[in-house]
Amino acid sequence: MADYDFGALKSAYEDFQEPVVKLMINGMDVTEKEKSLKIIRTEVELSNGFEAGIATITLAGNYDKDARLFKIDKVKKYLFLGSTVILYLGYAKSVREVFRGFIARIHFIIPKDYEEDIPSIEIAAMDAKGVMMANRHSKRLKATSYSDAVKEVLKANAFLSQKDDKNMDFTDMTISDTPDKKKNSDGKTSDKRVEMVEESDYEFIVKAAKKFNFEFFIVGKNLYFIEAKKNTTPLITLTPFTGLKSIDIGYDISGLVRSVEVRNIDMEQGKYVGEKRNLKSKISLGNKAKPLVEKQSLVYLDPTAMTQEEAGYRAAYLKDTVDYRLGSVVAEFIGIPELVPGRFITLHGFGKPADNTFYLTSVRHIVSDNAYLVDFEGCANTIGS
């Protein structure tokens, strides 16, 4: 059963009428306190990939056409680079947080024909990943496993430890244990501490995620470092009658293989280190595709895989990446704040084999011209049947 029911959401959001954007900057509700300011466009780009989430908000009502200047006094308390941004989207009186980050860029825009186009201020905000990319360290951490190391790195990040105006933790973190966090036969944990070598917090966490086939992404105030595709419960079921605007569902066998193998040589002991994994992609639509893929394999030389176990981690990551090349979806629906990357959704009622379960990799929320739409991309490792 899915987490959300479209009918229940439609009722909660009053038939998806009257889109609402609520913008908080440094704990101040800009949309409530500055009635003369108008948000004319909002775009939030979220991904379960390793890139930072971005929110772009365009504000009008701050330009004096007669004096031909921006009325900065009205907005200056909101326009500090680095200010905390929290963005809520929804309908009528029901809104949901979809983004949390900091102001990274500000643009003051006067278009060529400002009699037709409105001069505006554009705020571009990035989520916490944007801050993590800037620093660089070479140090030995206290942690003896990568999951504990990720917690240690995040705990030390000044941006993530901020408090908002309600004195609540700025970010909720879900950090799953990595496979290297385990006890030895004597009941003790490893005493080998994890090191950072000339890398930013962001690079270190991404490296850890790729090592163990984990995902590292942020949605609203929630930061995730979790096993890839672990939660298989569908987020929601969407049909041609649930606010569909457009959809493109496809299946592609190019690049697919039947197995992946990671290899290395342990130079100290002079022995082969490797791991092979068979893919789970389920190919149908006739009997011609399977023979083309069956004999294909991917061999990856990884000098960092020093043990059989480490080769297995890398093979699992490659297997998952290749497996989900088979199916794809690009779609646009009516705006649903609950749609987020890093979750599965079910598409139903489009006919077989279009009906399938897809894993959302990117979601973009757009509110403009009193309309709220969401477009998303997803992938699948099976053909619908």
Fold blueprint:
Layout: H1 6-12, E1 19-25, E2 28-29, H2 30-33, E3 38-47, E4 54-60, E5 63-64, E6 69-70, H3 72-75, E7 84-91, E8 94-109, E9 120-126, H4 129-132, E10 137-140, H5 146-155, E11 172-175, E12 195-199, H6 201-212, E13 214-219, E14 222-227, E15 237-238, E16 244-251, E17 259-266, E18 271-278, H7 289-294, E19 297-301, H8 308-323, E20 327-334, E21 344-347, E22 356-368, E23 371-380
Parallel strand pairs: 11-14, 15-21, 17-19
Antiparallel strand pairs: 1-2, 1-7, 3-4, 3-22, 4-9, 5-6, 7-8, 8-9, 10-12, 13-14, 16-20, 17-18, 20-23, 21-22, 22-23
Helix pairs in contact: 5-6
List keywords for this structure.
about 375 residues; alpha+beta; Phage tail proteins - horseshoe like beta roll fold; Phage tail proteins - 2 layer sandwich fold; 3-stranded mixed beta sheet; 8 helices
Q: What proportion of the residues form beta strands (DSSP E)?
A: 35-45%
Helix segment tally: 8
Distance between the termini: 19 Å
Shape: globular
Mean pLDDT: 84
CATH topology of the largest domain: Phage tail proteins - horseshoe like beta roll fold
Count of individual beta strands: 23
Question: How many individual domains?
Answer: 3
The CATH homologous superfamily of the largest domain corresponds to Baseplate protein-like domain - beta roll fold
The main β sheet shows up as:
13 strands, mixed
- Going by CATH, the architecture of the largest domain would be Roll
| Secondary-structure-derived class | alpha+beta
**Helix fraction bin:** 10-25%
The low-confidence runs, each spanning 5 or more residues with pLDDT under 50, are none
**Mind telling me the CATH class of the largest domain?**
Mainly Beta
